[in-house]
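Good morning C.,

I know you're traveling, so I'll keep this short. The sequence:
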Amino acid sequence: MSEAIVLWKLKDLKNNQEMDVKTAFIEREIQVVRRSKVPLYVDGVLISDEQLAGLQIERIGYTQTQIDTAHYAAMYAANPDLMTRVRQYKAYLDDIAVDYASSMDEILVAIDTFCQLKNKDKALYGSQIKVVYDAIITNMEFCGSDTPHMDVYIELAKMIQYLPAEA
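The C-alpha cells, ready to paste straight into the viewer:
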C-alpha cells in the first residue's frame, strides 16, 4: 500500500462538510470593510459623546479668545502689511489717548482737544489717521474680505487687541 495522497478535498470546518477541491466558491457571511457615510445627527440632534467615541470622534470646544487668536494670527500671517498699518493706527490712537473701539467722531474730538497740536497740525494729524485707516481697508480687501469697510469698522479694536508682539 502506498502512502501517497491520491485525492484532495476541501473540508468546511464550520460544518465538517467535505467538498471537491475544484469547488469554485462557497457561501459565507463575512464582514466587508468599506467606507460608509455615518450620520452624526439623529432627528436633528448630535449623537451622544459615547457614540462619537465609538466612531473615534470627540467634541472639542473653543473659547472666543482662542478663535480670535487663531483668526487674527492667520490674517496677519497672510498679509504682513496689514499688521504694519494696524500698528500705525494703534500708535495714532495711543498718541491722543483714545480707546481702540472709538468711533471716528470720538477720534476727531480727541484730536481737537489734543493740546499739543496747532489747528493746521490737527487737520494734518486727522488726515494721517484717515490715510492709515483707508490702508487698513485696502489690506482687508487683499485678505479676501467682501465687505472691507464694514469689517474694519467692526473688527478694528480686535485687530489691535490681537496684534502680535513686535519682534
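Safe travels,
E.
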